[in-house]
Amino acid sequence: MRKSLIDRVIEPGAITAVFQPIVDIRGAHPTLHSVEGLSRGPRGTTLESPDVLFEFARRKHEEPVVDRAAIAAILAEARALPGDLPIHVNVHASTIGRDQGLPDYLKRLAGSAGIALHRLSLEILEHSNYVEEGQYLGAIAALRAAGIGIALDDVGVGTSNFRMILLTKPSMLKVDRFLVDGIAEDLFQQATLRAVRVVADQVGAVVVAEGLEREEDLAMLRELDIELAQGYLFSRPRLADELVRLLPIAPFGRRREMGVELAELAAAG
Amino acid sequence: MMSTATLASAPPQPLRILLVEDDPGTRQLLATALERRGHEVTRAEELDEAGALLEYRDYDVLCLDLDLAGLNGLEGLDLIGEARARRPNLRILVETGNGNPRVHETCVERGAAAIFLKGSPLSELQRLVESARGGA
What we know:
Largest interface: A-B, 12 and 14 residues
CATH superfamily of the domain at 5-151 and 229-267 in chain A: EAL domain
CATH class of chain B: Alpha Beta
Structural class of chain B: alpha/beta
CATH topology of the domain at 5-151 and 229-267 in chain A: TIM Barrel
CATH architecture of the domain at 5-151 and 229-267 in chain A: Alpha-Beta Barrel
Shape of chain B: globular
Oligomer: heterodimer
Order of helices and strands of chain B: HEHEHEHEHEH
Low-confidence stretches of chain B: 1-6
Number of strands of chain A: 8
C-alpha cells in the first residue's frame, strides 16, 4: 500500500536543506553573523516550496513530526559548514508546546552532527493563537538551559506579536519582510521598526531585519540601529557546500572582517 | 458563451488548474485530458495539500474530487467554502460519482460553478473547466 503523503514527506532524505546568511550590518562593511537553515520539501512535488510544506503540516496538525524531519535534514547538511558558524533553525511554537521530547531530540541530533549546542538557535514561528503555555514555557527553559538560543520569527505579522514576545522572552527578534521591504520610503514602517528597536533594547534582544533586497532599505536599517539583516541583497539561500565554497575558510573572528567576501556572495547571485 | 464546437477547434486560454484527486490513475487521466488542451495542471492527492496550495499559489480553476478516500464529503465542501472565501475569482468544479441532485445543489450553494459526474466523457470535463464561471 502506498504511504500517505505526510509519511513520504518525513522519510529520511525527502526534506533537503539550504542556508541563508544572516549579516551584521553595523560596520562599514557587512559581515557574516550566522546562517539560517531553510527546508525544502520533496523535490518535484507540490510540497517542495517551504511555505506550502509547512502549511500542509499545520493543516494536518503534524507540525512536530515535520519540524523534527526538517531540523534533522538541516543539521545533517550543516556538518559541511565551518565549525564555529552559528546555525538557526525554524520550529513552530505548537511543536515546542506539544513535543515533550524536543529538547532531548535536538541534543541527540546536534551531538551526532558534531554541532555544539551553543551554535544552535531556534527561530520560533506560530500560526495559531493556541500554545500549551505550561509545556511551552518548560521546554523554552530547558532549551535555554542547554545553551540553545531562542529567537522569535516573523515579528510583526500574523500571531508573532506582543503576546509571543511576552510569552517567549526571546533574545532575538526577527522582523518580517513586510516591515522591511520598502522601509526607506515608508514612515509607518520606520516608526514600527523604531518601536521594535525600543522593545529589544529594553530586554537586551538583538533585531534581525528579514527580506532585505534593496540598498536604500539597508541604509535605513542602519539609520534605525538595526544590527542584523538577511535577504537576497546579501545572498539567496544556498546549499551548504556551495556556501562554503563562497566563504573563506577562516576562524569566525576573522570571518567577521569579510565584507568583501559577502559582496562577492551577493554578486554570485 | 463558447460553444462545444468552438472548444474542439480552437485552443482555449491556458488556465492554471489545481486538480485534487486521490486515485493515481484517475488523476493521471484527468490531468492529461486538461493538459492536452494546453492548461497547466497542478496535481494534488489530498485536501490538506490542496488547502496549502490554495493558500500560497494562484489558480484559475479548482477541480475537486468530492469522494476522496477516508472523507465523508463534508471536508470537501469545507474546502470549497474556504477557497471561495479566499479566492473569489477561483472557478470551482466538483468531480463526483454521486448522482444525487441534492449533493450537487449543496456544492453549488457552497460556491461550485459546475459538477462533473465521474464516468462522463473527458470532453465534458474540458468543456466545464473552460466554461465554468467564477461565483456560484
